[in-house]
Amino acid sequence: MSYTALAVLGVVLVVLLDLVALRTRLLRRRAFWTAYAIVLFFQLLTNGILTGLRIVRYDGAAIVGSSTPTDAPPPFLGDGRIAFAPFEDLLFGFALVVLTQVLWVWLGRRGLQRTPYAGPPRVRMPGAAEDA
Amino acid sequence: MSRFAYLAVLVFVLVGTAWLEVLLRTGVYARWRRLLLTLVPVVVVFCAWDLYAIAAGHWTFDPERTTGVVLPGALPLDEVLFFVVVPIAALLTLEAVRSVTRWEVGDEPPGACAGGLRVDDEEPR
Q1: In B, which residues are within 8 Å of A2 by CB distance?
Q2: Beta-carbon contacts of residue B60 (< 8 Å; ≥ 6 apart)
Q3: pTM value?
Q4: Residue in chain B lying closest to A7 (CA)
Q5: Is A127 within the bounds of a domain?
Q6: Residue ranges making up the domain that contains A96
Q7: Cβ distance B79 to A56 under 8 Å?
């Protein structure tokens, strides 16, 4: 199976795990999407380093775009790539993050180390909830 | 380029997120048993994916810029560490959002949330 097909399958499986199998329903929470937006920014940055410097190289037969060139960086944008990385990496990263967070929330819901709860922050954060 | 290039990226992620545990009290490292039980299946599933991808030739690694420690199946140690470090960063981010916003995530005890917000606030620790 190509990386493209596996990456799509990975996303489908974690979505089913969250919404159907474990019913954690993290994908319906704004806390998840806010955290994901932050993770995505840093994925584009760090994965851009790993793929732009060709520390990780891809075979064009496995992805929508072309193989990582042997003598130059891959395109920053286009040819199936976003920030040097195959767009498939975004699906891979989404599956990795969702699987992790779903298992974490599921274990907590079953009573494993619910505490210490997150917060309150030691410092004032922009956008923080007002004290009652 | 150094063989610690990949590792340096992982250290950046680990160091760049560690402050959340201290300043936002995310409690991810503090709940280390829950963290460990979360990480085990994640590492197993994604190492399996990685091993398949390496065997099928989907991707390769620059031997000059990875540690050179390679596990059976041609899996670089760097990749295994990736599947530990990135999930920890993802959990720290989720708990940091919860710490700051008090938004409901789904693992709260019954009655702890109302209208999607945590309402059973404890005294600041």
Answers
A1: 58
A2: A56, A57, A59, B54
A3: 0.95
A4: B49
A5: no
A6: 3-109
A7: no
